[in-house]
Amino acid sequence: MPLNIDWQQILLHWMNLAILTGGLYFLLFKPVKQFMEKRDAYYRERDEEAAGKLAEAERIKAEYQAKLDAADEEIRQSRAKAQQAVQQSAEEQLSRVQTQAQQILTHARAEAEHDREEILRSSQRELRKLASEATKRLALERDPFDQFLDLAEEGVKHEER
User: Fold this and answer.
1) How far is 35 from 134, CA to CA, in rounded Å?
2) In this predicted model, what pLDDT tens digit does every residue of 30-89 receive, in sequence order?
């Protein structure tokens, strides 16, 4: 052997390598590969589960959003009805108040007219009474001209003394 190569040693090393590779394949590679496949399947399953739950959550969210929108619309309609009822009530109250005010004003005018007429009648009675009394006094008393003459006579008598 010129290069000092022992073919028998090389073959033995090759066989050792093949046995070691086969043994390691069966002892390490195959279990690691199975473990990796199980892990991959587990994570794929979890991913599918999460996607399913996400889809379910999206569906539930859409349902609740629809219910919320319906509730908002119902609230808006209720608010509009309530506002309309309040406005109508306010208008009715305003109408009643205006009617009452008109009645009070009419009543006050009628009462004022009645009081005015009563005061007028009262003052006319008073004037008649005063005129009657003045007439009676004038009729009972002497004539003013006679009074003047009497005073004049008294004045003359008084001067003579």
Assistant:
1) 142
2) 888 899 999 999 999 999 999 999 999 999 999 999 999 999 999 999 999 999 999 999
How far is it, in rounded angstroms, from Cα 54 to Cα 46?
12
DSSP, collapsed to helix, strand or coil, labels residue 4 as: coil
Please tell me the pTM assigned to this model. 0.41
What is the tens place of the pLDDT at every residue in 120-149?
999 888 888 888 877 777 666 656 667 677
Cα–Cα distance between 128 and 125 in angstroms, integer?
A: 5
* Residue 63 to residue 57: CA distance in whole angstroms: 10
DSSP H helical segments within 3-29, as ranges? 7-24
